[in-house]
Design goal:
By secondary structure, the chain is α/β, with parallel strands linked by helices. The protein contains 24 helices and eight strands. The strands form two sheets. A five-stranded parallel β-sheet has the order 5-6-7-4-8, sandwiched between helices. A three-stranded mixed β-sheet has the order 1-2-3. The relative contact order is 0.07. Helix 14 crosses helix 15. A hairpin with a 3-residue loop joins strand 1 and strand 2. The structure holds adenosine-5'-diphosphate and magnesium ion.
């Protein structure tokens, strides 16, 4: 059962957000602080993530793309368990404005706002922006989408309904969409993440309020639990969940669950729960293929066009780049588009390909490793038809010097290696030689169109090389 020990493990040392803000101000400077970070407010702290609020979607995207890593780093100093930060948009929009931006109605629905005082309903947040209508369909998610539609039509026919997929694939989006539809039909919908269910459960035990907890969940017509894998190892909670689950099935309530893996693969979850899950309808969402990725990019751009008054566009090149390179999840694709648009709005220009690479650096899988000095040297040698030994030799013939300088220049702009590091990889050349090479190529680029052309060709080969070979 639930031991004292478990309870102690769950206790969290509260985070002092003011302290973090001060730290951020010191680290990132007053200007960045005043323009962006000051607008962040602390909402809530969970075992491994923080919920913060910002006033607009734009500010959120800007902060996420530029400062999130640093914020997490600083937060981690005070609380090492925090691995992510979630932003909620809490804006005070006038009615007119939100009507204009119908597609981006970010204001929580009234119902949820009025419920905010009720501790249980606080967690029952259905996101108005995640609906069936704006769920983009592709081969990888069609099955899950159709099963979700069937679930809302044939209540408790597919019970429980279990969706699984990796992160950022659209599970929560579909769960939300179903929740919204059920709500339209005046069903009592309870939508909660397993993490919050756990938090609520512990709180109820501590405050001797288990009766209310049980009643609350057992009263639902529809119970939707997101990310059920977080129940792993939480024996007492699983016990409670199992009973709730049975009580709900008995009264024909619909249960919908999501997880990051198939039921039988769930670790440290009771066998009887897993077998209940397997007994219902189980569908998965697979990784998006190129076609779906492209559609998501286009859909996101359309959304942004409705959101901003000024023109939003993204060159075909960059759209293609994102659709080709960002393959891990739909969330990352959307994040990538947001970042590029934020960049273009702030700098009033579209980033070129290498700037795009920098902006999306952390989303591009192992780019750092893929674009190695060795790869650059190999491709530059091939391009200029010289051998690697010649490139790395100390010979100063003109036909070797330019390719060598070109390779050094490309290493400087395409990797994060320092000058001495680059020097070492080019037969222990001094870092002043490296600076000289970089400057020479930069100067030549300004006066020699052929140089510009060569550099661009090489850049593309280096950036795209491996992927092209794979396909
Ligand atoms: P998961 O719960 O699987 O981690 P989410 O449902 O939170 O993923 O999706 C991540 C983001 O991607 C959300 O903003 C969601 O709205 C969006 N998204 C996911 N799949 C789709 C889709 N098929 N069409 C449109 N947006 C999607
Ligand atoms: Mg989710």
């Amino acid at each position: 059962m639930f031991s004292k020990n478990n309870l102690n493990n769950l206790k969290t040392n509260s985070l002092d957000w003011n302290l973090i803000q001060t730290e951020l101000k010191n680290k990132l400077g007053n200007e960045v602080y005043e323009s962006w970070l000051k607008k962040i407010h602390f909402l809530e702290e969970f075992s491994n993530y923080l919920l913060l609020s910002v006033p607009t979607r734009f500010i959120r995207d800007w902060i996420t793309s530029r400062y999130l890593d640093q914020i997490i780093k600083i937060v981690k100093i005070y609380k090492k368990d925090i691995i992510r930060i979630e932003f909620k948009i809490v804006e005070q929009k006038s009615k007119n404005e939100s009507l204009n931006n119908r597609n981006f109605n970010l204001v929580e629905d009234k119902e949820n706002i009025s419920f905010i005082k009720d501790t249980y309903l606080q967690y029952n947040r259905i996101d108005q922006n995640k609906r069936f209508e704006n769920f983009v369909l592709g081969k990888s998610n069609k099955l899950a989408y159709e099963a979700s539609l069937k679930t809302i039509e044939n209540l408790s026919h597919y019970n429980p309904f279990y969706i699984y997929a990796g992160v950022g694939m659209g599970k929560t989006h579909l769960l939300n969409s179903m929740g919204l539809e059920f709500k339209k039909n005046n069903k009592k919908v309870m939508f909660i993440s397993a993490e919050r269910f756990m938090y609520q459960f512990v709180k109820s035990i501590k405050s001797n309020n288990m009766v209310k907890f049980k009643e609350y969940f057992r009263n639902a017509d529809i119970l939707i639990i997101d990310d059920i894998q977080f129940m792993n190892g939480k024996e007492a909670m699983q016990e409670e969940f199992f009973h709730t689950f049975n009580a709900l099935l008995d009264k024909d309530s619909q249960i919908i669950v999501s997880a990051d893996r198939a039921p039988n693969k769930l670790s440290r979850i009771q066998e009887r729960i897993k077998s209940r899950f397997s007994g219902g309808l189980v569908v998965d969402i697979q990784k998006p293929d190129y076609e779906l990725r492209k559609k998501i990019v286009q859909k996101k751009l359309e959304d942004l066009k409705n959101f901003y008054t000024e023109e939003i566009k993204l060159s075909d090149d960059i759209q293609d780049f994102i659709s080709t390179e960002i393959t891990a999840s739909i969330r990352e694709i959307i994040g990538a588009v947001n970042r590029i648009i934020s960049f273009s709005r702030v700098y009033k220009k579209m980033p070129n390909l290498s700037e795009t690479k920098v902006i999306l650096k952390d989303l591009l899988n192992l780019t750092e490793n893929k674009v190695t000095i060795d790869l650059i040297q190999t491709l530059v040698c091939k391009f200029f038809k010289i051998s690697k030994n010649e490139m790395l030799s100390s010979r100063r013939s003109r036909y070797l010097v330019r390719p060598r300088q070109t390779a050094i220049y490309l290493t400087k702009i395409l990797t994060s290696k320092s000058l001495p590091e680059i020097g070492r990889e080019f037969s222990n050349r001094d870092h002043t030689t490296i600076i000289h090479s970089v400057k020479t190529i930069e100067r030549l680029k300004e006066i020699d169109p052929e140089m510009v052309d060569n550099i661009n060709k090489l850049k593309n080969r280096i950036l795209y090389n491996e992927k092209q070979n794979e396909i």
